[in-house]
Amino acid sequence: MSTKIAIFGVGLIGGSLALCFKGKPGITVVGHAHRPASAEKYINHGVVDHATISIKEAAMDADFIFLCVPVGNLDEYLTKLSQIPLKKGCVITDVGSTKASITAAAEKLEFKDVYFIGGHPMAGSERSGVEAATPLLFENAYYVLTPPPGLPDKVYESLVLLLAYTRAKIVKVDPIEHDRIVGAISHLPHIIAVALVNQVCDYNETNPLYRRLAAGGFRDITRIASSDPIIWRDILLNNRGVMLQMLSDWNKGISEFIAMLETEDGEGITGAFAKANDFRSELPEHRKGMISSTFDLYIDVPDHPGIIGKITTRLGENDINLSNIQIIESREDVPGIMKLSFRQEEDMERAKKVLQNMDYSISL
Ligand SMILES: NC(=O)c1ccc[n+]([C@@H]2O[C@H](COP(=O)([O-])OP(=O)(O)OC[C@H]3O[C@@H](n4cnc5c(N)ncnc54)[C@H](O)[C@@H]3O)[C@@H](O)[C@H]2O)c1
Ligand SMILES: O=C(O)C(=O)C[C@]1(C(=O)O)C=C[C@@H](O)C=C1
């Protein structure tokens, strides 16, 4: 039996899905691009079997259609698809970071023998484009589905079965509930990271030491501030109502900190940190995707020539697979921090022991 999968928008998420499906028994993956140059790029990167700029050509005969374009373009593609003859039983799904508006739009369209199931993989990165796609992106991450009421079980199960190739964990969530939850755990953090980076950027205008001294704490909390501006403009405008409420709650939390500082309320400050520490320690550790797509170790390294070679050789001698290595130049003329990334938790744990035996100081 052959299965045709059409992917509209083969970027970070669409490309990663394509890589999960491509080459699997009986599956053909077709990418839709809105520009000829992008279609060529999809083929050159080897993420799809075919690429086209024709919506009709991509969608006709498809068993599954994944809409992986920015949130602001989802409605437009869904409407276009409702106007062309699709294969009987075709399942259309999306990967947009918000779910309420697209599921409502799908309910209004008159699809005949074609089904829409909203989707949102809770995995991603601050990088974008097909260049950043990887088949490992969704492994162990949650993948939200928002099936409409009355959807035949068989149809839902067919999508779940296909998504098994992503190795993600499927979870059913109500679309409105979804937008509230991701508003808090994904959209609000992106706004905060951007506002923080821009605040420091303004201070840096008066003294460039702000940027030069920025170290682990600043980097940890601001990685997502490098995310794609168009993707995030669309997400935030789409989830505007939820975000305005959450930013108002955020202002209350910040006002509490202002009050604690004004009144020198040390007990209040330690209480706030302890509460946050407790909640954060309950987060699923080292899960790939939403929190981290790799298992990372940070080590303090002295400024010796050949230090990278020494460490990588020792890891190699112990058959430990390193997926990435990065020197975080936090300060000049003093020891720096090296970030070692591993695909497997077991490799990270073994590396930790080897490096501790070499007397390096390690943090996770
Ligand atoms: N980035 C993440 O971490 C993440 C995680 C989960 C879901 N999402 C959602 O996935 C979707 C895609 O995000 P991404 O991170 O893969 O972005 P991306 O920029 O990597 O990919 C977007 C793709 O859409 C195409 N595209 C852009 N504008 C278009 C238009 N006007 N018409 C048609 N195609 C267009 C681009 O060429 C590209 O192929 C978004 O809806 C986003 O909300 C993103
Ligand atoms: O890890 C990241 O860089 C992400 O931004 C991924 C992230 C998130 O906020 O966790 C971003 C948007 C999504 O819709 C889902 C996941």
From TrEMBL:
Catalytic activity, EC: 1.3.1.12
Coiled coil: none
SUPFAM superfamilies tied to this protein: 6-phosphogluconate dehydrogenase C-terminal domain-like (SSF48179), ACT-like (SSF55021), NAD(P)-binding Rossmann-fold domains (SSF51735)
Domain annotation Prephenate/arogenate dehydrogenase: ranges: 3-291
Pathway(s) served: Amino-acid biosynthesis; L-tyrosine biosynthesis; (4-hydroxyphenyl)pyruvate from prephenate (NAD(+) route): step 1/1
BP GO terms, sorted: tyrosine biosynthetic process
Name the UniProt record assigns to this protein: Prephenate dehydrogenase
Organism in which the protein naturally occurs: Paenibacillus azoreducens
Gene: tyrA
